[in-house]
Amino acid sequence: MEYAKLKNPRRLAWFGQLGTVELELEVLEDDGQLHMREFTCSPLHATLILHFEDKETWTAAELSEETGVPEDAVRKRMGYWLSNRVVRVANASSIHSGDITYELASTDDLADSTDPLHHHADEDESGQA
Fold it and tell me: Engineered SS bond to 32: which of 9, 36, 52, 110, CB 3.0-4.6 Å?
């Protein structure tokens, strides 16, 4: 029997944005190491970050299309993951163009900028490109 017939005139209204999700993610900490951290977030935050299991790099437009959430809302929600160092902006110039590209943060990010002994794959032993 339908709910509306049984409980007339009441109706059920789903609020999909309500609720919380608990996630355990690897996060790049200040010491340069990946550590497991627990997050309690909205279902939308969880949906966005879980897309990075399928692919490491997403634009705000791609996430918007994939989730059906407006692009400005995606950018706003991804700020949470940026501030918690779970993802980073792939290239700073994308911020000004409006087509922001996000990628998972990793220890390579810090190694490239702080480790003087770190060699890139296209360098020989003397550090020459």
Answer: 110
Tokens representing 125 are: 């032993």
Residue 78 and residue 87 in contact, taking contact as beta carbons nearer than 8 Å:
yes
- Residue 37's Cβ-count burial label (10 Å; 0-12, 13-18, 19+) is middle
Tens digit of each residue's pLDDT (9 = 90 or more) over 18-45: 889 999 998 878 787 888 999 999 999 9
Q: Report how far residue 58's alpha carbon sits from residue 101's, in angstroms, rounded to the nearest whole number.
A: 6
User: Tokens 């990010």 identify what position?
Assistant: 109
Task: Supply the pTM of this predicted model.
Answer: 0.68
Residue found by looking up tokens 């000004």 in the block: 96
Q: Please state, in angstroms and rounded to a whole number, the distance separating the CA atoms of residues 103 and 86.
A: 9
Here the tokens at position 92 are 């700073």
Residue 88 dihedral angles phi and psi, to the nearest 5°: -140, 165
Alpha helices (H) along 7-114: 43-50, 60-67, 71-83, 93-97, 107-114
